[in-house]
UniProtKB/TrEMBL annotation:
Lineage, top ranks: Bacteria, Bacillati, Bacillota, Negativicutes, Veillonellales
Signal sequence range: none
Protein's UniProt keywords contain Cell inner membrane: no
Protein's UniProt keywords contain Ribonucleoprotein: no
Transmembrane segments: 7-23, 29-52, 59-82, 102-127, 134-158
InterPro entries: Hpre_diP_synt_I, Hpre_diP_synth_I
Gene3D superfamilies given in the database record: 1.10.1760.20
Keywords on record: Membrane, Transmembrane, Transmembrane helix
Protein name, entry field: Gx transporter family protein
Length: 174
């Protein structure tokens, strides 16, 4: 029963992140920075980071979301951009969270910044031009802003989730 419950919880996280990814694709985003997005699917990653005791589960949720979202509407380049951004984002969030000196909002903001850094690195590799790094400060500011918004939303969501009896079961069995 615990394995089934664990699989259901992970599947729900993946499904929620996919829905947010699809919804985000439908939203017109009036950003100054071309290519910048809100990163709504990352809301689920941040919530999972704080709700699930095993961090490898967070990585699995993130990887499955990237694979499925690429299958739904991305190409191989989209996959590489997503994987590199997600790897650096999750890695930085794990370090910042473990450090213990940063709030959930700070951890999420770091994730937003490092996500963009990972994507710019891949862009430099694909177009074989390091001058793309000049765009990083603009994307870093956008990533920090969206990371803060995602962090605030995750904090409010977790506050309400922790009141549910199901949350304690997730903590015990996942």
């Amino acid at each position: 029963m615990n394995k089934t419950f664990h699989l259901i919880i992970l599947s729900l996280f993946v499904a929620q992140s996919l829905v947010l990814y699809i919804v985000e694709g439908m939203l017109p985003v009036p950003f100054i920075a071309p290519g910048a997005k809100l990163g709504l699917a990352n809301l689920i990653t941040v919530i999972a980071l704080y709700a699930l005791p095993r961090k490898r589960d967070v990585a699995l949720i993130l990887l499955l979301r990237i694979i499925l979202s690429t299958a739904f509407g991305g190409g191989i380049n989209a996959f590489f951009y997503s994987v590199s951004g997600a790897a650096l984002s999750l890695g930085s969030m794990l370090v910042f969270q473990k450090c213990g000196k940063f709030s959930l909002i700070g951890v999420s903001a770091a994730g937003g910044i490092f996500h963009n850094f990972g994507q710019v690195l891949v862009a430099c590799f694909i177009v074989e031009n390091m001058k793309i790094m000049l765009y990083l400060p603009v994307l870093a500011v956008a990533g920090m802003g969206t990371g803060i918004l995602i962090g605030i939303t995750a904090m409010v969501t977790l506050k309400h989730l922790q009141k549910l009896p199901l949350y304690k079961r997730i903590q015990q069995t996942c």
